[in-house]
Amino acid sequence: MTRALINVPKTAKRGDVIEIRAMIAHPMETGYRMGPNGVAIPRNIIKRFACAYDGAEVFAADFFPAMSANPFVAFSTVATSSGTLTFSWTDDAGNTETATAEIAVG
Amino acid sequence: MNGLRALIVCGAALAGTALAGEIPSTERRSGAAFMAPETQAMQADDSENPGMLWVLQGERLWSEPAGSSGKSCASCHGEASASMRGVAARYPASDVAAGGTIDLAGRIALCQRDKQGAPEPARESDELLALTAFVGHQSRGLPVAPPDDPRLASSRANGKRLFEARMGQLDLACASCHDDNWDKKLGGSAITQAHPTAYPLYRLEWQALGSLQRRMRNCMIGVRAEPFAYGAPEFVDIEAYLMSRAAGLPVETPGVRP
């Protein structure tokens, strides 16, 4: 079950710089830890986070094992038109979680 | 000689702090008041507070049918924002069917077992923490209001006794830090007044949501005592006592702590 918290302004004026916040529940297992039985816990982190604004990628980041669990990302972009922001998180297991948010630009 | 004098002064200082006793009601404040402004801001802003991820999960679980009854929490309780408002501020409460005092997580687990016919969720499982956080969240901002129920008196008294009992190899009681030295630091961290107003809470050190019992087990391990098991009546008694001390402070669930 995906648990993601997205914060995008519902409305904006064309040309406004808008702040976007995205947080997802993920263990971000580094691969450097041992389990209780002394066996290494395999690495499982989100490798890539990307945000597309009406299909065009406006922000992307590569993550590394130093990121904490439940990574939180805040960034800004320019409000160009009404549309959908699509967020995607891809982890080592190859799973991609997505979330969307709508923005109305006047 | 100087060394001896230093020892005597040190001894006198320790004797002085040992007499501090319970915190006067006018000086009671939440653990959040001891945090850095950045951590306070993280707790206050729902888009930054990682505990909200569990509240989100709890909101979904609330309306999902579970167990042999095919009922969800919502089937009986309806809209949580109305039916669960203020509930967390009243727990732990007395429950005759459960045979004594029960905490909120225990109450939810029993409801799942008896009313939904689902397997009783394990303590500290994501599902139970999520539901407890979601129910607790409905009371956010309301003052802690321990019920005026004579059946809770023995629990509170036992909780107070345990809170003040020295334990472990370090021979420390909860009260040694949280009553006598709450305005000081331990290993660089603030010693708070032990008001459980924000549980379950997201601890940055854990990188996860955790219950008051997990926090108390940490402290017991810290003083090198054998911690009580999850769900132990001793923990519920301590919580009942601590909530009676915290009366009037606002519920913060889900809190954030360093």
Describe this structure in words.
The complex is a heterodimer of chains A (106) and B (258). By secondary structure, chain A is mainly beta. Chain A is built from no helices and 8 strands. Chain A has a 5-stranded mixed beta sheet, with no helix packed on it. A 3-stranded antiparallel beta sheet of chain A has the order 1-3-6, with no helix packed on it. The model of chain A has no long low-confidence stretch (mean pLDDT 95). By secondary structure, chain B is mainly α. Helix content of chain B is 44%, strand content 7%. Chain B contains 12 helices and 7 strands. Chain B has helices at residues 2-17, 37-44, 51-62, 73-77, 80-83, 87-90, 104-114, 126-137, 153-164, 174-178, 212-222, 233-245, and strands spanning 93-95, 100-102, 185-186, 189-190, 201-203, 208-210, 256-257. A 3-stranded mixed beta sheet of chain B has the order 6-5-7. In chain B, strand 3 and strand 4 (189-190) form a beta hairpin. In chain B, helix 3 crosses helix 8, helix 7 packs across helix 8 and helix 9 (153-164) packs across helix 12. In chain B, 36% of the residues are buried. The model of chain B is unreliable at 3-19 (pLDDT under 50). The A-B interface holds A 1, 3-5, 7, 21, 23-25, 28, 68-70, 72 and B 46-48, 50, 52-54, 56-57, 60, 204, 207-208.
**Which chain pair shows the most residues in contact?**
A-B, 14 and 13 residues
Low-confidence stretches of chain A: none
What is the rounded Rg of chain A? 16 Å
Range of helix content of chain A:
under 10%
Tally of DSSP β-strands of chain B: 7
Largest sheet geometry of chain B? 3 strands, mixed
Number of DSSP helical runs of chain B:
12
> Given the structure, what is the number of helices of chain A?
0
Molecular shape of chain B: globular
Query: Radius of gyration of chain B from the CA trace?
Result: 19 Å
Quick take:
Chain A has no helices and eight strands. Chain A has 106 residues and is mainly beta.
